[in-house]
Specification:
The chain has strands spanning about 1-5, 10, 15-25, 35-45, 50-60, 70-75, 90-99. By secondary structure, it is mainly β.
């Protein structure tokens, strides 16, 4: 079983992107050889209103051996038109599927 830590965020080079660091832990008995990590990114307005939640996926940093952890940093972006001036993004959740 692969579990994913809470995302640690850092600003990206554009307001519609951010750097998201997560740690994957494999507590199962076999290696996770491939898979996908899915991010839930919220678009937040200037007054703190959550306007939308958008998902995006990237490859899992495989293989992850049984009983080990692996940390990876991803650049997560949404379409630029979804984040007008004064708005920001906030990736609040990451989940993984593996094979």
């Amino acid at each position: 079983m692969v579990t994913v830590s809470a995302p640690v965020l850092a600003d990206g080079d554009r307001r519609w992107c951010e750097r998201v660091t997560v740690t994957f832990r494999n507590s199962g008995g076999t290696a996770a050889r491939s898979g996908t990590v899915t991010f839930a990114t919220h678009v937040i307005g200037a007054l703190g209103v959550d306007w939308a939640t958008l998902t995006s996926s990237q490859p899992l940093p495989a293989p992850i051996a049984p009983g080990t952890a692996r940390t990876e940093t991803y650049t997560v972006c949404v379409d630029s038109w979804r984040v007008p001036l004064g708005m920001r993004i906030d990736t609040r959740k990451a989940s993984a599927t593996w094979r």
